[in-house]
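Deliverable D4.2, example record:
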Amino acid sequence: MELGKQPPTPPPAAPVDVAALKALKDAVEQVTTNLNSINVSLSTDLNYLQEGFNKDHAKLVKIEDGAQNASARIKTLEVQCTRVETVDALNQTIENLGLRLHNTGMQLQEVRDAVTALTRPKATDAPTLMSTGPTSGMLAQRSGLPAQTLLGSPPRPTTPQG
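Output generated by the structure prediction step:
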């Protein structure tokens, strides 16, 4: 603004219509009442939704806890199943080894019996002549026994049957 100039003066006010102002005031009051009613209704609905959300959240937390519990139990059961499978496998291996040991023991006993049978003189064996001279062959011819028997040779081993 320039120095020395005065501000412009506003135009003169128009005459005021009191009835129009009263109608405008009533309309503003009605809108205010309606807005307050809408505000109360929305606040009530918001509170209802918030309570529902809180209940749902509490249920969700319980469900999550249950899911974590179930997951932990499943993992525990998986570990236990693995242990059971391992124990079963070990038991099967022990059983197989026991059978093999039993079979080996039976084979060993068969070998012992065969060795004992080979080393024990038989009751049917004829006495042998311990002659190594030129007449040993003649004795064998006269007696009908092989020369090895007459010379004291050990009997030939027989193979076990089975």
